[in-house]
Amino acid sequence: MLLLLYPRQETMHFVLTRRAEWLGQHSGQIALPGGRREPGDADFFATALREAKEELGITLDAAEPLGRLTALYVPPSNFVVHPAVAYVPVRPEFRPNADEVAEVIEVALDDLLDPARHGTEAAPSVGLQGASLTIPCYRFGAHRVWGATAMVLSEFEVLLRNAMTRQGG
């Protein structure tokens, strides 16, 4: 899973995708680019870059790794995601793979920090006898971001806010 930061119109952005409708359990959901690690991947950062290239048709030769976020278990797919954060100095030219991506969604970092765009919602949990969990949820335009993607964005938001507080901003 890759949280890719890049400048667009003098503002920092990141990219989300709406998954193609035929991709199984997570069809049609809003997600960060990413997927399963392959034997040739040196590490999870390499996986995130490879998957983003495949899904979005972008070049990431100039990608600068900024760090990793907390690995997260996703019960519905029985999968652990390993989010990586990277920066590219120029907005990528997106040529999404239609087999995987129905829509490319560019989000201004300011929108992630806008309290009016996020909250929580109840979601049924898997394996907890029908109990529900309260999970973070973001709204960017007509798109609702929830689940693992929202949890990753929530962690990133907290890290950004903490960094801004330390810098006095």
Q: What keywords describe this structure?
A:
alpha+beta, Nucleoside Triphosphate Pyrophosphohydrolase, six-stranded mixed β-sheet, 169 residues, three-stranded antiparallel β-sheet, globular
Task: Provide mean pLDDT, rounded.
Answer: 90
User: Which structural class is indicated by helix and strand composition?
Assistant: alpha+beta
Named CATH architecture: Alpha-Beta Complex
Summarize the main sheet: 6 strands, mixed
Q: Estimate nothing, just give the exact number of structural domains.
A: 1
* Overall geometry: globular
Question: What's the total count of β strands?
Answer: 11
**What ranges have pLDDT less than 50 throughout 5 or more consecutive residues?**
none
Distance separating the two termini: 28 Å
The count of helical stretches stands at 3
Would you tell me which CATH topology applies? Answer: Nucleoside Triphosphate Pyrophosphohydrolase
CATH superfamily: Nucleoside Triphosphate Pyrophosphohydrolase
Topology summary:
Layout: E1 2-8, E2 11-19, E3 30-31, H1 44-56, E4 64-68, E5 72-74, E6 79-81, E7 84-87, E8 101-108, H2 109-113, E9 118-124, E10 132-140, E11 143-145, H3 147-166
Parallel strand pairs: 1-7
Antiparallel strand pairs: 1-2, 2-3, 2-8, 4-7, 5-6, 9-10, 10-11
